[in-house]
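pipeline/complex-builder :: batch 7 item 3
reading input block
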Amino acid sequence: MIQADLHAHTTASDGQFTPEELVRLAVHLELSVIAVTDHDTTAGIAPAQLAARDQIAVIPGIELGARRDEQKVDVLGYFIHARHPDFQQRLQHFQQNRLQRGQQMVQRLAALGIPLDWPQVAALAGGESVGRPHVARALVEAGYVADTREAFDRYLGRSGPAYIARETLSPEEAIELIHLAGGVAVLAHPIYVPDFPAVVERLVPAGLDGIEVYYPAHSAEIEARARELAEMHHLVMTGGSDFHGLNVPGKAMLGSALAPPGCVDALRERAANGQAQLIPASARGSTDT
Ligand SMILES: [Zn+2]
């Protein structure tokens, strides 16, 4: 039987395990398929596939952080062509934007007479791009404010003097971007999406392909509701653990949620159909997955 965990992070984003270590663990756990789904980057895919050889299948994936009305809506992509130039260009643009935003907030604060040490702020982000919570913590640590709440109230909130708007994708744009790379788009962990049935209804016309029905934090009710929606809209039901490492607070072990039987084939087929629509058969050559 195929044991597929379709949601795992590596050190390419915020995971603790290198792609090679992730593959080793997956083989040890006797999984047959994993998907490498790092946040907004595809850098972990190739090393994982190289390490996997023929011991385990590694699906090229991604988890795009999208937002609607300040609400996070993560969209997973599967069977993406990671090297698609337009796709990579868009990812790099967002990376650059996130990097610059942190620095711009620190520059604004300096202009207000509140100098922060950039390397220290960056260290608080622990390798991730610097966001408002990191700057807020730096302000607390430097003694400028009593707590992060005050940091937001006085400086970093939407109307604060050090606020820099963040460039984000809408969930629809995330789906479009995944399709551009020849992949299938799946709504990640509906439990973390407020009013997810309404979100699914809105994203189906935008081309949503699936829902992550099986997820460690899902209650039986959420799972049932997600399954019902998937059936109603003919979406692929997927599953994965959202593995980030061992003993990561709030995160589960690799293999603790699995994709249902037939899922991987359904995703592959849907990706192939989408690609067939994008590229006329006459122009299709060999593809790199
Ligand atoms: Zn994730």
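note: The pocket of zinc ion is lined by residues 7, 9, 37, 63, 242 (CB under 6 Å).
queue -> next item
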